[in-house]
Design goal:
By secondary structure, this protein is of the alpha+beta class. It folds into 4 domains: 86 residues, 2-Layer Sandwich (Uridine Diphospho-n-acetylenolpyruvylglucosamine Reductase, domain 2); 119 residues, Uridine Diphospho-n-acetylenolpyruvylglucosamine Reductase, domain 3; 120 residues, Alpha-Beta Plaits; 99 residues, Alpha-Beta Plaits, CATH 3.30.70.2740. It is built from 18 helices and 18 strands. The strands form 4 sheets. It has a 7-stranded antiparallel β-sheet with strand order 15-12-14-13-17-18-16, sandwiched between helices. Its EC number is 1.1.99.2. Belongs to the FAD-binding oxidoreductase/transferase type 4 family.
Length: 471
């Protein structure tokens, strides 16, 4: 029996896709990475995942775990050898259970994030992970990259939102680690090892997630600012005035929102006059457990004092949930507007908030000196220091010319990130995009330990080869 016949016998012929049928899985969302797979295999249970991995281990076939395929660093696409098996987990999409007394839910890796949010909401709870791709990304992908999103400031990344995992190892064994415990000091923390490993150590098939109480009220405001320093000052005021109720603080360069309005005319900035053309904007959100009136009062005091102090130039506070959604939709449409405008050079970096202005202003100047006329497309989660510092073509730049400069742009930006004590990957992962430059910025001992862990858990090197670690 050849490899394809063995896979068909394991999961059913209809769940093994080859040739033209496999094409959508062989290309990443940004259409930057294209590979060729032996097959796309779509198991429906954890046992089937384990059986597929065992077959691949016996045959020495690479395994490429894939969720919603919304990643931005090429972490879920094969090489062009035609030997790899893409392991699509989209059929593992059940919510196995919700425990409201323990505030946990057990979900399979193929569950779409939005569906998990909805299931939690229907149970009277909140699962707070929120990001632009939530309608198509899956929990498995969120775990593989330790996703963050817009509410990390209050609730944390996926590591903080996960209590237990079910994982298929590189040998095809199943680790049953779906514990719903907040405290468990019984040895090494394997959970945190697999989270963020991008499928290079094993396949996450299910998770026990933390739930939170649904907020009684939310307040959202869009703030107009004249500088990035004003944004940082406003973040400090919001933290001091709102405390743990501060849920999100997003920073956006003005041209980002102008691009959204241009690409999607049905959306509009809720400002008129000078405030509609400011260099920076911030999106601020509070979640309150007391009452709508209490939330609104606290919110208006903090925003009002910032306006009086000249930190904020203008503000629009949402008067309804629909208006709040519209403000967030502006922020969430920035990546879509970027894609509509053509390819860009993307950076997902983490910077100490105290050095954010230094980084942005200095890097902008350095890029303009080296590549005059390029555009800076800057937005991100200022509250946790995560910036999407992207570089797009200016009016006099052809797309091909910009992409020809990408290695030099990456090096300049990443060197400056490193110089201010930051990280070259905050929430998108490493994948193929940053694999080869990772040793330039990581401690040599740290890199050696990572290679040892990979060799110990995946001695054949079949789990998502070519991602995170080179060689």
């Amino acid at each position: 029996m050849d490899h394809l016949d063995a896979l068909r016998a394991t999961v059913g012929a209809a769940q093994v896709l080859t040739g033209a049928d496999a094409l959508p899985w062989e290309t990443d969302w940004r259409e930057r990475y294209r590979g060729r797979a032996l097959a796309v295999v779509r198991p429906g249970t954890t046992d089937e995942v384990a059986a597929v991995v065992r077959l691949c281990a016996q045959a020495g076939l690479p395994v490429i775990p894939q969720g919603g395929n919304t990643g931005l660093c090429g972490g879920a696409t094969p090489d062009d050898s035609g030997r790899a098996v893409i392991l699509s987990l989209q059929r593992l999409n059940r919510v196995r259970g919700i425990d409201t007394d323990n505030d946990t839910m057990e979900v399979e890796a193929g569950c779409v994030l939005q569906s998990v949010q909805q299931a939690a909401r229907e149970a009277g709870r909140l699962f707070p992970l929120s990001l632009a791709a939530e309608g198509s990304c899956t929990i498995g992908g969120n775990l593989a990259t330790n996703a963050g999103g817009t509410q990390v400031l209050r609730y944390g990344n996926m590591r903080e939102l996960t209590l237990g995992l079910e994982v298929v190892t590189a040998q095809g064994d199943v680790w049953h680690g779906l514990r719903g415990l907040r405290k468990d000091n019984t040895g090494y923390d394997l959970r945190d090892l697999f989270i963020g490993s991008e499928g290079t150590l094993g396949v996450i098939t299910a998770a026990t997630l933390k739930l939170h109480p649904l907020p009684v009220a939310r307040c959202t405001a869009l703030l107009a600012l004249d500088s990035i320093e004003a944004g940082i000052a406003m973040l400090g005021r919001a933290r001091a005035g709102l405390g743990a109720s501060l849920t999100g603080f997003e920073l956006m360069a003005g041209n980002c929102l102008q691009d959204v309005v241009r690409c999607f005319p049905q959306q509009r900035l809720p400002f008129e006059g000078p405030s509609a053309d400011r260099p920076w904007y911030a999106l601020l959100e509070l979640s309150d457990s007391e009452s709508e009136a209490h939330a609104r009062e606290r919110f208006e005091v903090v925003v009002g004092e910032a306006i009086e102090a000249g930190v904020v130039l203008d503000a629009v506070i949402a008067e309804s949930m629909a208006q709040s959604h519209a403000l967030w939709h502006l922020r969430e449409s920035i990546p879509l507007a970027e894609k509509e405008s053509g390819k860009s050079i993307k950076h997902d970096v983490s910077i100490p908030v105290s050095r954010m202005a230094e980084f942005v202003l200095g890097t902008n100047a350095a890029l303009q000196a080296a590549f005059p006329g390029i555009r800076h497309v800057i937005f991100g989660h200022l509250g946790d220091g995560n910036l999407h510092y992207n570089v797009a073509r200016g009016p006099d730049w052809a797309e091909g010319r910009l992409l020809a400069c990408q290695d030099a742009v990456y090096e300049l930006v990443h060197d400056r990130v490193h110089a201010v004590g930051g990280s070259i990957s905050a929430e998108h992962g490493v994948g193929q995009l940053k694999r080869d430059v990772l040793p330039r910025y990581k401690d040599p001992v740290e890199m050696a330990l990572m290679h040892r862990i990979k060799a110990a858990l995946d001695p054949q090197g079949i789990m998502n080869p070519g991602k995170v670690l080179a060689g």
